[in-house]
Amino acid sequence: MELYYFISDVHLGLRYGNWQEREKYFADFLLALPEQTKELFLLGDIFDFWYEYEHVIPCGYTRTLGAFAALRDRGVKIHFFNGNHDIWTYRYFQKELGFIMEPQPSLYNICGKTFVLGHGDDVEKKDKGYQALQWIFKSKFIQFLFSMLHPWIAFSFGLSWSKHNRLAKSGNSYSFDCSREPLYKFCVNYAKREGAPDNFIFGHFHSPTDVRMSECGSRFMILGDWIHNPSYLVFNGEELRYERLK
Questions:
Q1: CATH number of the CATH domain containing 42
Q2: Residues 119-173: pLDDT tens digits?
Q3: Into how many domains does the chain fold?
Q4: Distance of CA 37 to CAs 64, 186, 226, 237, Å?
Q5: What is the pTM of this model?
Q6: Which domain holds residue 33?
């Protein structure tokens, strides 16, 4: 029996709570994935801030990067979707760790079931402020200027901004509202346009959600974060279920 895992919003490096312990138990979790594990889908914001220079790799994630390498050595395919916190990824994940860098949303067929996957922050581009912020992050010129900063300055700024941005959103109190969120409306329109998949799975909102869409019959799921309530999804070819890390 082959197993497929889906994880998002670990936010490694976020100086909140016992952040060093979070990195350790995430790496332990990866190393303990069963031998039947075939593919791992990382749906964004695995790192709270990531920027790689030509010859400098961020410190603080040794256990996790080693665990990823061990999984690849076992033959596990690892798919990586950029989140809004780890958008600045270039060659390292793909070249050194063998990640499959994915566009989003992406459609997969796994054991005869269809999945639409992504981080979930950038599917409906209607918020002008967010569009502007995304343009800044994706600008090659801005990235070039940022690379001119010494790493200790860049990461001090990046981690400080990232922490403020996350904690400003009321921590873990948000509850995903399907009737109001553009992401849910995007999925409804996607099903009308492309046909309804069996499952929509996203992250970003830190609000575990599992509903059957009345509009198309698809299962709509939001992954939880690993800051307050570590959880993930596992698919065994027949059943897709939530699991929580004890």
A1: 3.60.21.10
A2: 998 776 556 655 665 666 666 666 666 666 666 666 666 666 666 555 545 455 6
A3: 1
A4: 17, 31, 20, 11
A5: 0.86
A6: 3-244
